[in-house]
Amino acid sequence: MAQIFPKWANKVPKQIQLGLILGLTAIVFGFWYFGSPEYLEVGYAPEQPIPYSHQLHVGELGLDCRYCHASVEESAKASIPPTQTCMGCHEQIASDSPALEPLRESWETGEPVEWIRVHDIPDLAYFDHSAHVNVGVGCVSCHGRVDRMQVVMKTESMSMGWCLDCHNDPGPDLRPVEQVTNMDWQPPEDQHELAQMIISKRNIAPPTYCNACHR
Amino acid sequence: MSNENQRTYWKSLNELAQNEEFVKASEREFPKEASELKDGLSRRNFIQIMGASVALAGLASCRKPVQKILPLRQQPEHMVPGNPLYYATSMPFKDSVYGLIVETREGRPIKIEGNPEHPSTLGSTNVFQQAATLELYDRDRSRHILQGDQQASREEFEAFCAEQFADTDQRIAFISEDSSSPTYLRLKQAVLDRFPNAEWVNHEPFSDENRLLGNEKAFGQKLRTYHHFDQAKVILSLDEDFMQLSDNDVENVKRFSEARRVKSTEDDMNRLYSVESAFTLTGSNADHRLRVKAAQIPLFLNALAARLSESVDGLEAYRNHTNEFSQHAWISVLAEELLNNRGESIVAAGMDHDSDVHATVAAINLALGNAGTTIAYLELPHVEAGDQNQRFAEVTRRLGAGEFQSVVIMGTNPVFTAPSDLNFAEALDAVPVSINLSNHVGETARLCDWHVNKTHFLEAWGDGYSYNGVRSIIQPMIQPLFGALSEVEFLNMVLNGEYTTGYDLVRETWQSFAPQDFEDTWATVLHDGLQEGTSFPAVSVSLANGFTEEAGQVLGQSTPVDEEALELVMKVDSRVYDGRFANNGWLQELPDSITKITWDNVAQISAATARRIGIPDERDFGDLDAHKIRITAGDQTVEIPAWVIPGQADNSITVTYGYGREGFGRVADGVGTDIYPLRTTENLLFHSDVQVERTGEQYAIASTQDHSSMEGRALVREASIEEYRDHPTFAPDMVYIPGEVDEKSISRYTLFDPQDYPENEPQWGMSIDLNTCIGCHACTIACQAENNIPVIGKREVHREREMHWIRVDRYFSGPDEANPQVLHQPVPCMHCELAPCEQVCPVAATTHSDDGLNQMTYNRCIGTRYCANNCPYKVRRFNFFNYTKEYLTTGEDPEVVQMAMNPDVTIRFRGVMEKCTYCVQRIQRGKIETKRETDLKKPADGTVKTACQQACPANAIDFGDLTDTDSQISQIKRNERSYLMLGELNTRPRTSYVAKLRNPNPDMA
């Protein structure tokens, strides 16, 4: 009697097994990598209605972060500046630049400039800027070198694990409070001692329980 | 062990009888139907909805959602995005205002608190004030000026006014709600000067008119009665609900509870006697309560006055008067108590009683020396001469006779609330031009030629006087949502035919209050909400000439009451008042303090009356649990479900107004029964003889009274003050908790790993003082407003799915089931240190935080409901449906309701468990602010207040850090009456209770 299956069919079960393993691994890895906030979030740099350049304003002109993001020290929200803040300078400077047309329109009509949110954390997480900048977590720790960005880009994943990395070990990201907006600040040799001093002086004990951020 | 344990507590007659149905209902793991999806949103329907949601979710997740940030053009001063701003304002209610502080977020008022500087609230609130934000964001509010059915612009109405009111000789009838606003009264005077033939009458269906008229009879002047309950050692309340439905309830409760607070065995308490026909909130807190028919209360009072007249001057009219109460045991006891506490007692009668009763009360208080000590009589600037109810009837008759060319109805809704025999709707028809100003296109507005939409008090300028005369400001928190006119703007338009802003009108009035340095005073007033040092002048009263003769005549006409006749008492409702709050979902869903009924009004009857009518005196736990009865008074008939309630006087039926609205709003329509048809000019609040029969129909009532039963455990603990002095630790001693007294307790050994609490974290705890708690439910609504708790509707409440994070359990106790004592016990999450819920959650969605909170992480919850099952306190609430999402995203312009939400609290989704968080958003704010602004390691005592604590008018709730041994909460927890509810289960709850005390008269034991 002739064989029903040719000889090569002996390999098929093994190939299927191998294929399944490889396929599952690929799926898991695919989700793990392509579904991760690191892949999906980092590098997000939407085009804004006004091509505002942080590189120009912060990097070259040397504006402090708080000149525009004025509520960062007293509120959960850093806040985007009202049109008035921009017009404070642009009434005089580049007052006829076509790029600033939406700004002048807002100033005349009272309609807001529609900025696109870059750093968007989920609604179930309540992040408070003031709790961080007042104890010496620098802007650059979460937002990257904004002073070198033509277009603001998200540089960190801002996932819960990323938050907890620092909440479990805040030391490496602490600096003297007066240096928080300094984009160029380099940790000193004795960063560990400095961090310990700030931790004890400011009673820093970052919470890691759920209700600290989720309410 | 004290023999207090022998006392039984029960929530309903069914529980007391332990009848089969009750046992069956209480033994179920989950309430019947609570676990099932049934009709309405059927399973098929549900899957369709689910399908649609999934499809939408699928599409939505393909692309990163783009969120926009819209900064302002110009940032207003003081406004910091993300931080709340607080403004002082006032809430007008009838002819007084309550001082408030309103929290606004990015320009939206979201939460209301009492103004601590304002004597009318002293930092607390009642339920109506808490619910006012939802009233502002009511989607059914009138949005347009209407000429007939057509929308009209403000300019058109302005032009109409200029033309219509150009003829100053015409006869205009002004019908207005009561108001204490100086600006409104100034404009009113200007209107009356400009239109000499105009008639102005106030129509306030439940005003304090009878009390004012009573004082006029006694003292010759219409004076306001201002009680100082903190000064009184003995209080006698005759149907007077001064804790809930009086005009100055918040201050009354503040003062009363201060005199009731007992910190140690040395402290004294006041003693409250209550004589009433149906349980009021006040009666439920009385040390002694007598139930008599409402018709008998004047007789009781006369008998008391007669007895007092033997010992004091000023009551000669009553000397030697006798009636059926003269030999009543209460009369001699009360007379002795009142005489022993001259100048330190208060006698008060309810607003439903006629002016003769109030005159007698006033004379008694004067004779006892209470006038000027515990009671002040205040002169009102805005009081009208004569009986307003009679004047209104007269004006209505003249309207019907065609004597007026136009009628202007402001704020009030007489087509709904006027006595039915006046036929107000017909009278209105006889007037050529009718103009109405109201919040809703209600019963009156629909019949008027012009309707003008009225602003809510949170969006308009205004002013007013508090009950005791503190001149207060009303300032807007937001631009009018629907472009309406305030009452002063409206009245000014009628007067001048042109629009002037409310701001200018109010400022013009206030200029006369501070002519010297107006701008400074104005700035201070806006900051404080009130003008310092203002109050109504107190009058030194003396008995009017001829009072004795008049009172003697009234006495001569008094007749014995037929005990067997069925009387009908008609009251305002504790939630919708006269109907004005009927479209407020928070209030509709709030259980009544005594009946625990939501979304309905009922006829309250006693068990004996029920048997007489022929309906069972116990509740049927089926779908249709109440029997309807037909009440006939005169030629009017109303069909209403009956509800048997202990403590109700026999042969007395109590019903409440305000329900059964049609065409008023989506929430109000069709809820309950309208009983205004029974209201007549002669019988505004009371019928002495009505016919009642059962209709045979049965009806579903959503009452929460048997939900979460205690089943005989000592959850509420109480003693008399004498027992407390003999045995100060009676409360904790009632139940042996292993480990509390014994060092080598078994509770040190627990199956679970004990929690580590870091030293830098505060440890939060709460204490609820059952002695001062009056059961008013202000905490429940405050919690609902603060924590975005959804309204779920009658059907869902009937299935025991109510969502309130803090409920108030009401227990009856005592040997006499017809006239029991009452205890109120608020129950929020206990935040157990060894929480049973945490052990059974399969996904660790409920865990413990470092600061001792039992935290709920919504995003992890998969909805097994094991936690609710395992919670001994039954405080966990499950989102069976997408209550909030449906509410916030469906219907036209859902943005309006979205504005009422607290941005600091997550909106919960279908299938998620939720419960009290100790207001964790306030805790986090307190912690962050402490870190930011001070060098303290933990928030200072008093920094963090929970919403329920802040709202409580009795200051019964305390909250704070237990690691701070000097904190208020730590001191209270050390009190000898402090006990843990179900502490014997070794759950180690963070919320504890302070046992209730009563102060019974030994002579009445």
Question: What this model shows, in words?
Answer:
The complex is a heterodimer of chains A (215) and B (1005). Chain A is mainly α and 215 residues long. Chain A contains 10 helices and 1 strand; from the N terminus they run H-H-H-H-H-H-E-H-H-H-H. Chain A has helices at residues 12-34, 37-40, 54-60, 65-68, 83-90, 101-109, 129-133, 139-143, 160-168, 191-201, and one strand at 115-116. Chain A starts with 11 loop residues before the first helix and ends in a 14-residue tail after the last helix. Chain B is α/β, with parallel strands linked by helices and 1005 residues long. A 7-stranded mixed beta sheet of chain B has the order 7-6-18-17-16-8-9. Chain B has a 4-stranded parallel beta sheet with strand order 13-12-11-14. Chain B has a 4-stranded mixed beta sheet with strand order 24-26-25-29.
Number of beta strands of chain B: 42
- What's the oligomerization state? heterodimer
The proportion of strand residues of chain B reads: 15-25%
Q: Termini distance of chain B?
A: 21 Å
Helix fraction of chain A by DSSP (H/I, runs of at least 4): 25-40%
Shape of chain A: extended
Main sheet overview of chain B: 7 strands, mixed
Mean pLDDT over all positions of chain A: 90
By DSSP (H or I, 4+ residues per run), the number of helices of chain A equals 10
| Average of per-residue pLDDT values of chain B | 86
Please give the number of β-strands of chain A. 1
The helix count of chain B comes to: 34
Q: What share of residues of chain B is helical?
A: 25-40%
Rg value of chain B = 29 Å
Strand content bin of chain A: under 5%
Low-confidence sequence ranges of chain A? none
Main sheet summary of chain A: none
Give the SSE order of chain A as H and E letters.
HHHHHHEHHHH
Spans of at least 5 consecutive residues with low confidence of chain B: 1-5, 37-60, 741-747
